[in-house]
Design goal:
CATH topology: Growth Hormone, Chain: A
Largest sheet: none
Distance between the termini: 57 Å
Structural class: mainly alpha
Pfam family, one: MFS_1
Shape: globular
CATH superfamily: MFS general substrate transporter like domains
Helix content: over 70%
CATH architecture: Up-down Bundle
Number of helices: 21
Protein name: MFS transporter
GO cellular component, one term: plasma membrane
Keywords: Cell membrane, Membrane, Transmembrane, Transmembrane helix
Family: Belongs to the major facilitator superfamily. Phthalate permease family.
Length: about 450
């Protein structure tokens, strides 16, 4: 065989090897991607229906901000218990129960007007429902991280993690216009009922299809061997059952004593602040500050969402590409994060333009950058202690989602007291700078943390 023939044959051989190994892990990734799309769509319903809900049950901006924050309170508080449940009972059972329960609490929110409650009682009802929603959704992202750690080799983990993390943007891109149309056509109550029903159906699919690597009948021996040889912790769930070690306070406290972990925690807090602005106040900003209708806001919000999804995928692909080219995973995670946070700071420029097209364009660039930065879960998969993947993810996401408490309330307070979103935009943009500094200055070389006995 000459050189030209061998150069052609090499890609063919690689393709055949991939085909023989199988691709079940990509089907698993597609499943958690769809679940995460629905997860974020359910969180975002109130941002689209919020104007109509507030009008019908007589909520002012501060009260609506409190309702938005209820999810963040519960979601943050539920992360460590959710991570413990994952380490104790595994992703299949915990995640499946989470899907079913969050779908029920989504549907129940649609009943608030029919109950005939006064404004303060309606606010309390919605607060409780949003709190319950956040509590039962708490295991979702630690479960995603755990599943990716089990199923994907190190050099594929960045792309896999960025894909499920980017589901939040696709949720907005697809469901925001759909929910806006349902709200305008049938009433906001129907949005909660429809999304709750979709989630319950997805829960059935989850329990039918998802199993851990060592139990999945469709996983070939070749794919299992490939995953194990290249860094996937395929035996993590098996080891969880065979020799479970108790989590002591000593071990837990070490998750708060490593500089690199704190850098990643701060980065997650900052990027989550942008997320909560986007899924709570952004459509209302377009309606109240920019004079758009509900339908216009729904379709306009989809444009930055598509850009965020594109940036999210690109961030993971770039990170994995750098690893394949020989870069240390530490550098491969830091480059897309810091570059993305720099681009996301551009959202502050919306305070200096008048045209709605310019606002959407700037937001699109900002959320492209936010998506590019979405490598935090891949970083956690790289550095979390091997025996505490679920709990580490819970701490990481719990601290990050304190932003889900702070951001909606601060924005609600600013808008209520100033009558404008200008200062709120500055508040959100500042998080981009802090996140950039966390990865660029605080973090050292990312390595897997070893827990000392």
């Amino acid at each position: 065989m000459n050189i030209k023939e061998s150069s052609i044959a090499a890609p063919r051989d690689e393709a055949l090897n991939v085909a023989r190994r199988g691709y079940l892990r990509y089907i698993i990734l597609a499943l958690i991607f769809v679940v995460t799309v629905i997860n974020y769509a359910d969180r975002a319903i109130l941002s689209i229906a919020g104007t109509s809900v507030a009008q019908d049950v007589h909520l002012d901006p501060m009260q609506l901000g409190m309702v938005f924050s209820a999810f963040g309170w519960a979601y943050a508080l539920g992360q460590v218990p959710g991570g413990w449940l994952l380490d104790r009972f595994g992703a299949r059972r915990v995640y499946g129960c989470s899907i079913v329960l969050w779908s029920l609490f989504t549907a129940l929110q649609g009943l608030v007007e029919s109950l005939g409650l006064m404004a303060i009682s309606a606010m309390l009802f919605l607060f409780v429902m949003r709190f319950a929603l956040g509590l039962v959704e708490a295991p979702a992202f630690p479960a995603n991280s755990r599943i990716v750690t089990c199923w994907f080799p190190t050099r594929e983990r960045g792309t896999a993690s960025s894909l499920f993390n980017s589901a939040q943007y696709l949720a907005v891109a697809i469901f925001t216009p759909l929910m806006a149309w349902l709200t305008a056509s049938l009433g906001w109550q129907h949005v909660f009922f429809v999304m709750g029903g979709v989630g319950l159906a997805l829960g059935v699919v989850w329990f039918w299809f998802y199993h851990e690597p060592h139990q999945h009948r469709r996983l070939s021996g070749a794919e299992m061997a490939h995953m194990r040889a290249n860094g996937a912790l395929v035996d993590m769930e098996l080891n969880r059952k065979s020799h479970r070690e108790p989590v002591t306070w000593h071990k837990l406290l070490q998750l708060f004593r490593h500089r690199n972990l704190w850098a990643v925690y701060i980065g997650q807090y900052c990027i989550t602040a942008l997320t909560y602005f986007f899924i709570t106040w952004f459509p209302i900003y377009l309606i109240k500050e920019r004079g758009m209708s509900i339908l216009e806001a729904g379709f306009s919000a989809a444009i930055p969402a598509v850009c965020g999804f594109t940036g999210g995928i690109l961030g993971g692909v770039l990170s994995d590409y750098l690893i394949r080219k020989g870069a240390h995973p530490s550098l491969a995670r830091k480059i897309p994060f810091t570059l993305g946070m720099f681009l996301a700071m551009g959202l502050v420029l919306t305070n200096f333009v008048d045209a709605n097209a310019a606002v959407i364009g700037l937001m699109a660039v900002a959320f492209f950058g936010k998506g590019l930065s979405a490598v935090g879960w891949a970083t956690m998969s790289d550095i979390a202690p091997a025996g505490m993947i679920g709990l580490s993810g819970g701490v990481f996401n719990g601290l990050g989602n304190i932003a889900g408490i702070v951001t909606p309330v601060v924005i609600g307070y600013v808008v209520s007291t100033t009558g404008s979103f200008s200062d709120a935009i500055w508040f959100v943009a500042l998080h981009c700078l802090v996140g950039l500094l966390a990865y660029a200055v605080i973090a050292r070389r990312f390595e897997r943390v070893v827990i000392k006995e």
